[in-house]
TrEMBL record:
Record organism: Actinomadura darangshiensis
Domain of life from the UniProt record: Bacteria
Binding site for ATP: K38
Matches recorded under SUPFAM superfamilies: Protein kinase-like (PK-like)
EC number per UniProt: 2.7.11.1
Protein's recorded name: non-specific serine/threonine protein kinase
Length: 558
């Protein structure tokens, strides 16, 4: 590190290190938020081919938001070196769990593989390949989520050496890393969770991956087909995608262990991670071209360019709770700021403005006008927090005059709805693709209908205008409006009221904090909403919009 510190951060302590660099716990000076920073090894920082490749990966990584991927914040380069700023997550690496506890058992192993495949599916959709999957790069957090970190940190051509026990045969032959090699590695990790050791060990790893029989006999019978499929020698004989593999996993798990397999597996994985964290850290393995990831706090690789791209998602809580002018300024680096909305002239007495002095009425009018002229967009939406709250959705929507928006999207939730599925929402009907058929059902209730309803409510423009209209505090900094609204008032709002009633009841929150960013035409770009304290029992929504003006043809599928 040569004494270099990424500007704007204060180091607290070193967390770990390896051949690719050292990881430190640091504090973002403007906000007080703790992050993990990896200072790349001098050889990597001087490898222009690697840096060029990583710069290209940084932007899509910064846009990757998924509960099973550790957030990537920034990639910083200077004359002194290069560093990756990443989310600081409380948890332990799967490597530490396996070293401390041994085999996890089939239910926890299935839960781990399910989370890993969800993270890979989200990454592969953005053409992001991990390249060096191994247990050190799978973090188990306090809720039993398997979260992936360290995407694209192995220089091209060295992927096999970075994780030899998990490297598919084609990597040893010099082929580039692909989604198929990621699925191979995920299966090898799954195998290790089941048996306590990787499928191939010892000398001549390349030959074993190329020629040795797949040792599926060591795993429980109902799971052997998953092992055979994922560890196939030829890439085209492996699952076609992470989503396809996940569907096969769920079918096998339900058949073998019943519909509650996921809840039981997640609980067991949480228990094992908690026990591992309480034990002394095992000695580091002998150097083997591994990444040397920190076993306690893992971080995803960084998002290209300015820290502005992650402040809203990661520290908007501080923006709202403490004013956060510095962080909000960072958000205003890539869009023209919208002009101040002009209040309507009227001879009638004007209502009392929210604390902060911003009148929401002209702002809401401008938003309604802008979105009416661009009645469709691409979107991403994510919910995190307590009480079975995690939900994700990504796709396009179309605004319908006098009706709820229609969506076509890929979504996932918790429990039986955890597998990502393709869905269409038209009026109050949900259509979920199952194989070659679409299954229609009514929105609401449990499972996928509840997930779709939550995505539609939370990501709607009506949700944002309701927050602004209900605000008791509202301030503006450039293109960002931040404030608070009473949960009780929001709970009475048509359409989205039940959503805020649940958030308030489950977290005990009396106030809902929010921050919304707009483009120069008053169309929303990003938003963040939180019920509950920053630490403890809370629920958070965040989302983004792009490509305003598109008119997706959202029709009832046949």
């Amino acid at each position: 590190m040569n004494g270099w510190t990424v500007p704007g951060f204060t180091h607290e302590r070193e967390l770990g290190g390896g051949t690719s660099g050292r990881v430190v716990l640091a504090v973002d000076d403007p906000t007080g938020t703790k992050v993990a920073i990896k200072y790349l090894d001098g050889a990597l920082a001087a490898d222009e081919a690697f840096l060029t490749r990583f710069r290209a990966a940084a932007r899509p990584l910064s846009q990757l938001e998924d509960p099973n991927v550790v957030d990537f914040y920034d990639f910083v380069e200077s004359a002194d070196g290069a560093a990756i700023v990443m989310q600081r997550v409380d948890g332990v690496s799967l490597r530490r769990v396996l070293a401390a506890q041994g085999p996890t058992g089939p239910l926890a192993a299935l839960s781990m593989l399910g989370g890993t495949l969800l993270g890979l599916a989200a990454a592969h959709e953005r053409d992001i390949v991990h390249g060096s999957m191994r247990p050190a790069n799978v973090l188990v957090d306090g809720e039993g989520n398997a979260r992936l970190t360290d995407f694209a940190t192995a220089p091209a051509g060295t992927e096999a050496q970075h994780g030899p026990q998990y490297a598919a045969a084609e990597l040893w032959d010099g082929a580039p890393a692909t989604p198929a090699t990621d699925l191979y590695a995920a299966t090898a990790i799954f195998y290790e969770c089941l048996t306590g050791h990787p499928p191939y060990t010892g000398r001549n790893m390349a030959r074993q991956h190329r020629e040795a029989p797949i040792p599926a006999d060591e795993v429980p019978g109902p799971l052997r087909e998953l092992i055979h499929h994922g560890l196939a020698k030829e890439p085209d004989k492996r699952p076609k995608s992470a989503a396809d593999y996940l569907a096969a996993l769920e079918e096998a798990a339900v058949s073998a262990y019943g519909p509650s397999w996921e809840a039981q597996g997640r609980g067991r994985l949480t228990e094992l991670a908690t026990q591992a964290a309480q034990q002394p850290e095992p000695p580091k393995p002998k150097p083997s071209r591994s990444s040397g990831r920190n076993p306690i706090v893992a971080g995803a690789q960084g998002g290209g360019g300015s820290r502005a791209r992650w402040i809203l998602a990661a520290v908007a809580v501080l923006v709202v709770a403490a004013g956060g002018a510095g962080a909000m300024t960072l958000l205003n680096n890539d869009d023209k700021q919208p002009p101040e909305p002009t209040p309507a002239q009227s001879s009638t007495p004007q209502p009392t403005l929210p604390a902060g002095g911003v009148d929401p009425a002209p702002l809401i009018a401008r938003i309604d006008q802008a979105t009416a002229k661009a009645p469709g967009a691409a979107f991403s939406y994510r919910q995190t927090g307590c009480c079975g709250f995690p939900v994700t959705g990504r796709g396009t929507f179309g605004l319908v005059q006098g009706a709820s928006p229609s969506y076509t999207m890929k979504m996932a939730g918790t429990g039986s709805a955890r597998k990502a599925v393709q869905a269409v929402v038209v009026q109050d009907r949900l259509y979920v693709r199952a194989g070659k058929k679409w299954r229609p059902t009514q929105l609401g209730g449990r499972g996928y209908p509840a997930v779709a309803d939550q995505v539609r409510q939370g990501s709607s423009v009506a949700n944002l205008t309701t927050l602004l209209r209900s605000a008791t505090r509202l301030t503006r900094s450039g293109s960002i409006y931040q404030g608070e609204a009473p949960a009780a008032k929001l709970a009475q709002s048509p359409g989205i009221g039940p959503m805020y009633a649940r958030m308030s009841q489950e977290t005990g929150a009396q106030q809902i904090a929010f921050a919304i960013k707009f483009d120069a035409g008053f169309r929303p770009v990003k938003f963040w909403v939180r019920a509950g304290p920053e630490k403890g029992r809370n629920q958070t929504q965040r989302g983004s919009y792009s490509q305003w003006g598109r008119k997706p043809a959202v029709k009832v599928p046949r």
